[in-house]
Amino acid sequence: MAEKHELHLTKLYYSIGEVGEMFKVNTSLLRFWEKEFQFDIAKKNLKGNRLYSVKEIRKIEQIYQLVKIEGYTLEGAKAQLNKGKKSLTFNTAPCNDELIDRLERVKKKLISLKTL
After folding, report:
1. How confident is the model over 20-46, as pLDDT tens digits?
2. What is the rounded CA–CA span in Å between residue 104 and residue 42?
3. 104 CB-near residues (< 8 Å, 6+ apart)
4. Burial 74-99 (b: 16+ CB within 10 A, else e)
5. How would CATH label the architecture of 13-114?
6. What is the pTM of this model?
7. 37, 50, 87, 89: which has the fewest C-beta neighbours closer than 10 Å?
């Protein structure tokens, strides 16, 4: 039986090291998945380090479930994610991804207005 990976996310953003610890994987694997599964890390700190949002961590959680738990190849995992047919067995606690996305867009707009 596949193990369940339960996350309790309490912050808006997590460093790549924190995300690596959550899944017990190397940060290089997270960067590899970022390229392979073509998702962008929207936020970086002043040093340029990646900051993962809850939405991005949920995507990593899906990838982790498919590749590490269920044994899919990368191509198989990509196909499952693209089709959206796979019913994943991880904790899908409600998160406010849509609200966070809208707030981030508003913040960017306010910052651009401030610099005018």
Report:
1. 999 999 999 999 999 999 887 768 888
2. 10
3. 42, 43
4. eeebbebbeeeebebebeeeeeeeee
5. Orthogonal Bundle (1.10)
6. 0.66
7. 87
